[in-house]
Amino acid sequence: MERSVAHNLIVLEGLDGSGTTTQTELLVERFTRVGVRCAKAWEPSDGEIGRLARRVLRKQLRVEPRTLALLFAADRNEHLAEPSRGMLSLARSGVKVVCDRYLFSSLAYQSAGSGFDYVLGLNEGFPLPEHLIFLDVPPAECQRRMAGRDGVDLFEHIELQESIVAFYRRGIDHFRDSPMNVAIVDGTGTREAVHEKIWSFLSGAPIERM
C-alpha cells in the first residue's frame, strides 16, 4: 500500500548536533520574509505525551525501548491530528509546516532498541512529508558541536550515533519509490551556506545530494 504524502509538510532530519533546529528556524524566517504563510513544529511536540517522551530522553524517567517508541508514535498522532493546530490541519489550509524531526527520527533512533520493522509498523498510518531534508553531518562533528551542552541525552553517544545514521539511511531508502521529495544535504558548512542549499532544493533545483 502506497504511503500518502502530506502536501506543505517539510521535515528536517539528522543526528543530534546536525543543525536541524537551526535550519528549521532559518527556513521559517525565510518563508516569513518572502510572504509565505508558515508554522514551525518539532518532535517530540510540546503536548502532554511529547513532554513525557522528553523526560525519557533526558533520563528523568526510565521506560522500556518499545514503550518510548510507542510514546513517540502517540505524540505524532496527536501532533498530526489535533483539529485546530495539528500539522495536517495547518498544511491543508495552505500553511507551510516546517517540522524539526518526524517519523524518520523514530525509524533511526527507536529502531536501535526496538527493531526497524517494529517501529515502521507503529508509524504505518502516518503520511510522508512532501519534502524531506536530511542534514548529513559525521557523528564525530555532531559530538564536537554538542560538547558545550549541559547533560547528555539518551542517544547522544558516538557509538550509538553510528548505528542511528545507518537506520536513517535505511528509512530513507525504504521510501525511495514514494512521491516524497528527498534532499541529502551536506550540513558541515556554515549555517548560512547550509540554509541556501535547503532553499535551493525547496525552490525546485533538481538536486539529490548537495
Features:
disordered C terminus; alpha/beta; Rossmann fold; 9 helices; 5 strands; 210 residues; 5-stranded parallel beta sheet
Description:
With 210 residues, the chain is α/β, with parallel strands linked by helices. It has a domain at 5-43 and 96-202: P-loop containing nucleotide triphosphate hydrolases (Rossmann fold), CATH 3.40.50.300. Helices cover 49% and strands 16% of the residues. It contains nine helices and five strands; from the N terminus they run βαβαααβααβααβα. The protein has helices spanning 20-33, 48-57, 65-81, 87-92, 103-114, 116-122, 139-145, 158-174, 191-202; strands at residues 5-13, 38-42, 96-100, 128-136, 181-186. The chain has a five-stranded parallel sheet with strand order 2-3-1-4-5, with helices on both faces. The two termini are 31 Å apart. Mean pLDDT is 92; it is low at 205-210.
Low-confidence stretches: 205-210
Main sheet strand line-up? 2-3-1-4-5
Order of helices and strands: EHEHHHEHHEHHEH
Distance between the termini: 31 Å
Level-1 CATH class name of the domain at 5-43 and 96-202: Alpha Beta
Percentage of residues in helical conformation: 40-55%
Secondary-structure arrangement, i.e. CATH architecture of the domain at 5-43 and 96-202: 3-Layer(aba) Sandwich
Q: What is the topological layout?
A:
Elements: E1 5-13, H1 20-33, E2 38-42, H2 48-57, H3 65-81, H4 87-92, E3 96-100, H5 103-114, H6 116-122, E4 128-136, H7 139-145, H8 158-174, E5 181-186, H9 191-202
